[in-house]
Model the fold of this input.
Amino acid sequence: MLANTFSLGFNGSKSECIVVEYGQKTSSVSSCRNVRFTIGGSDIEIVDSWPHLRHVISCNSNDNLDIERCHKLVTLVNSVLCSFVSVDAIVKMKLLKNYC
Done:
């Protein structure tokens, strides 16, 4: 209702739903798989993890996927810096922007 007031639209095909467990582990995620959400006639997929602002949010409140993603970035940065150790700092920054 508020979205209509400000002429906002939502694209259901670009949306996903994640159910984050809190406290004791329950079967809330699996029980939510039977629920259907729709936006603008598009079904919203229920997922176990979702990237948001360069972080990965997991349904089980586990940070392993996010840590793994950060580890890959650090590995790429170190690889570029080691491969181009004698290159000017400005060139290194351009390489990092392009490859990492």
In short: Residues 63-100 form one domain. The chain is about 40% helix and 20% strand. The first helix runs from residue 2 to 5.
